[in-house]
Amino acid sequence: MKVSFPYMGSAIVYKKLFEFLEHEVVMPPKPTQRTMDLGVKYSPEFACIPLKMVMGTYLEAIEKGAKVLVTSGGHGPCRAGFYGDTHRNILKSLGYDDVELIIFDAPQDNWRAFFRNVQKIRNGVPWHKVINRMYTLYRFVQKLDELEKMVQKIRPYEVNKGQTTQVWNQIHEKFDKVKTRKQLYEVYEECKQMLLSIPTRKVDEKDRIRVGIVGEIYVVMESSINFGIEEILGNLGVEVERSLYLFEWINDNLVPWILRPKRFKEIIKKGQRYIKILIGGHAVETVGHIIDFKERGFDGIVHLMPFACLPELVTQSLIPKISKEIDIPILSLPIDEQTGKANMLTRIEAFIDLLKNRKRGKTREIFIDNIQEDVQEERVVMV
Amino acid sequence: MKEIYIGVDVGSVSTNVVAIDRNVNVLFKTYIRTNGQPIDSVKEGVKQLKEALGDVEVLGVGATGSGRQLAGAILGADVVKNEITAHATATIHFVPDVRTIFEIGGQDSKIIIIKDQMVVDFAMNTVCAAGTGSFLDHQAERLKIPIEQFGDLALSATRPVRIAGRCTVFAESDMIAKQQFGFSKAEIIRGLCDALVRNYLNNVGRGKNLEPPFVFQGGVAANKGIRAAFERELQSKIIVPEHFNVMGAIGSAILAKDYIEKTKTRTNFRGFDATDIDFSTSSFECKGCSNRCEVVKVSMEGKVIAMWGDRCGKWTNSL
Ligand code: SF4
């Protein structure tokens, strides 16, 4: 089976998954303007941006020869639950009758359907091998996420602009070659050293700015649609952490409930302070993480929402209240195909100025103290 | 010789250039249509400045606006800052106790909330243009009224009329309907001003605590009809600063001044000859990795002087 999948975040993880199941993998291209154009062309106009981008990715993967597309479904009353069927219908109307779309809904919603899907993609690989390799994959995701978190803490202080991103790209290439658990641990150690040897500026603890990124999963995880917000923030000298990492997502959604880390339940509980009922998407988690980031001493929150995303609209409408009650600045950024980068950059920069002001002092004079460093951070290289 | 700081604000609709002295007296200001040619409009603005002021010594240059990086590269700016910080800096200078700034330009509009001379919150319009200058331009054209007369006409209206101003399409059909009901043009224009303000406050100001003193700036602040509509809506006095339409440029000049004074550095300003230099921009998609960055390249007489847009620093660092 020539298998492909939506591109989201560190997509080599999904690639590994299917490699481990001995499929022929068609790596979908990282979403570009073309992906967007294709997606927009063949999706309902009022669909939200993740649906369109994933649609575009499917079409590009099919161009490259994919015959089976595997994805996860949504649960709760948000239209993400219809994505699979919508995509399936669109593919059909375009005449791709030979392309199969396999949708994994949350196992607890329908165990039987889940196992039917598992059987399909297991590809006849014996169970003991599947279990062993899935465990390797589990650790693979964990290690990659650990490195990513390091990246997010190193990038703001790097001396040579762009170096961390370069190393991060190299890390992906190295991880892509990993086949066994032993290799994984070796590569992990090597990559860790690569990151630790990046020259950084010393910045006082009290001068560090930390921003949490929350919101709908696709726009939070996929940098090509959020303008690479983590890098933008990092380049502005800001440490970032996302509300979502693949490893945690797996723990929260795929690991049996009993074994789930307590953390997830705590986040949900925090979110329920403001959203009491299930409204789908990641609304409750978004709010929970906002509160969690605040409790952990973060300076600000960037909230990413696909334009017209219902759950995140609910969150957005709560934000003034939350921001005031727990005293943390929150910047909501709606993301759509029309979102201009210049406009987005302006907001982000202004938001970071605001956070620095808050942290380091008032009035223009004190604000100027920050400028020198800001100028160095923001100015393009000039001869 | 006069010592000046230059501020440039390059937006999609207009390019503003100002010169201030050490005490933030505005010595020169100009307002040029960008017309999709930011390089030409920046050059033109600086040329006008030179002609108006004669021999001057430029101590520092600041750039802001959506074209700030480009303007910064062309002129050799010392400070390149976003519009929100630039606007706030200027407004705080002229109205030190300001709490809320309304900024409405051609395409963009903003609300900036200030407390103790510090930006504590802000918002910008996203996809909706119904709260911006272009909405008014468009409607003025429809009613065949020169935009300059718009304000006075609005003030002459005696009856209020409610126009659905949610978007241009609704506004248009509602205007036609109201004309048929017998409302005068003046009344309809007043209704439009109310609609714009309502819309702007609802869209951009949603969930914000708006406290006086209110300062209203940006190109649209020239419009008396809109000013009056704000005062009606907020039941409060609205301050329109003298240099209302070039506040961003002034703010960036102030930031440049502060920076130069504080760090005692020499300016990077390329000199007025830069207006004769041939600059060009181009962009390309880097295929170096799967990020496929859109890299912008600025060349000066064929030589690349600035690049940005690359995620990994490959191009920025290659200079
Ligand atoms: S500029 Fe760097 S990060 Fe961007 S596509 Fe090229 S190599 Fe990749």
From TrEMBL, chain A:
This is DUF2229 domain-containing protein. Gene3D superfamilies: 3.40.50.11900. It comes from Caldicellulosiruptor kronotskyensis (strain DSM 18902 / VKM B-2412 / 2002). It comes from the Bacteria. InterPro entries: Dehydratase_Activator_Redct (IPR051805), FldB/FldC_alpha/beta (IPR010327). Transmembrane segments: none annotated. It holds the Pfam family HGD-D. The lineage of its organism: Bacteria, Bacillati, Bacillota, Bacillota incertae sedis, Caldicellulosiruptorales.
From TrEMBL, chain B:
One of its GO terms (molecular function) is metal ion binding. InterPro entries: ATPase_BadF, ATPase_NBD, CoA_E_activase_dom, Dehydratase_Activator_Redct. The keyword Phosphoprotein does not apply. The keyword Metal-binding applies. Keywords: Iron, Iron-sulfur, Metal-binding. It holds the Pfam family BcrAD_BadFG. Residues 6-256 form the ATPase BadF/BadG/BcrA/BcrD type domain. Gene3D superfamilies: 3.30.420.40. It comes from the Bacteria. Its cofactor is [4Fe-4S] cluster. NCBIfam families: CoA_E_activ (TIGR00241). This is CoA-substrate-specific enzyme activase. It comes from Caldicellulosiruptor kronotskyensis (strain DSM 18902 / VKM B-2412 / 2002).
